[in-house]
## 1
Amino acid sequence: GGGAATVSGAVDVRAHAFEGGNVQLRSRVDLGPAEVVASGGTSASSLAKAIIHQISRWETDHVQGRLGSMYDSMGDTMLKSLRRVMPVTRTRMDWNVGTHRIAKNFATGGGGEKRG
């Protein structure tokens, strides 16, 4: 009849990130089927409101919740497994900029102080 419907759907998410490499994420959430009943009568507008309410619940409970928890854990789990622990040179990067400047000065012959 005009007061009830069965609704279902799916959300496909495809995200792309470039972090020194090509990382793509694909996720699919299947929703339903759910029986939706119009409250307050059998009119088409009542049924449409009930369907919109069901879709909003799915978005909040299933889609946004899952995506939020996935993105929260992504750096600790998924992306961490893709990153190299050591660079290709097999030596750790020394992030002390001063050390690099001193080494560069000595390599170019400017390592000593000039006295005038």
## 2
Amino acid sequence: MSVAALGIEIVFVFFLALFLLHRFGDFKKQHRLVLVATLLAWWLCFIIVFIIPLDVSTTIYNRCIAKNAVTPTPINPTSRVLQAMELYPKRNHADLLACGLLDITVSHLIQLLKYQLQTIGIAAANTWGLFLLVLLMGYGLVELPRSHWNGAKKGYLLMKTYFKAAKLMTEKADAEENLEDVME
């Protein structure tokens, strides 16, 4: 992994987390320790999301350089199809063309099945995992501390209890009306 790219990404992610915390948080009302803990948690979560693509691309690049090979491109199957189409007028046999195209298609599908479908599956699994990671860490790092923080405030807890009591009284009155309607 390139040290310069890694350093730039770490600094960028730190300022992104700081910007989002400033945008969605309240620096004046929150305690400094809460702000630092939230900044650290968001920074580490964002680092995971931003570093993995850099790591994967650097690994693939280093593997290409180490093997000194060019990755397969769609030009290769196209050139084989064009070669088979050039041979068609010379041989004048449709069966030969069909068998050749079928052979080319099957060989490339096997090659695709072996390497590229495995890569697509791994990429899809990693994407789904990162989506769940960000979603669940966002819930765990935002909603759970907020509920504990609000649960410790007496005024908030009292207002929440008043609201629940009023809701229960309304439901009780509705249930009594339904009972009277059923009894008649």
## 3
Amino acid sequence: MRRWLVPVLGMVAVGLAAMSFVTPWWTIQTQGVFFHWPVDGTRQFGLFGWTLQWSTSGPGPNQTTTQSSNYANQTEL
């Protein structure tokens, strides 16, 4: 079993890494945890109903905005 498990896991890892560069955004979502990276520079990280979103593309160099919200009440910080 180990003879084919390591090559298969290696191919899956290489495929995921290639997809992250080829596609404009990538999302991993399992059991309420996700990370989303669209092409416009906005990053989103979600954990069990909470979403943290930040952007690296602002009006000037190194401008960063952070927004946190809960699905229940949509509170912005």
## 4
Amino acid sequence: MTKPTMAHQHHHNFSSILLSLLPLMIFISLMAQASSRRLTETALPKPPVPELPKPELPKVQSLPKLENQPTGPTLPKPQLPIPLPQIPILPLPQVPQIVPQFPPLPQFPTIPEIPKVPEVPKVPEVPKVPEVPSIPVPQPTLPASATSP
């Protein structure tokens, strides 16, 4: 752990002093706000507000009342039966039958036949290698006293 330097200690002391004075500053600001509010509400008389005369508006003739006049056909009243329009039946037009004429298809090259691959002849079997007799490994034998209980 390093020892704090003199500048570090001074900074720490100064911030501690500021933090200790913070509640005092808040208290002073709240008191100043409350006293100024009280002085403005009670001590100073309010000046009278002069009444401004209302200007006289010029008289304008009223516009003629327009009635809602229909400009086109109107819908029938709901009580009356709604006449259905008569649609004349028109004959179907005679359309000539058109058969599409396509150009002949081009001759594509044909795939040649794949030649058959001859079967591979069987490889003669390799004779088995005769077994070479190995040297017998001696088995360890235990003394008779170790096997009997």
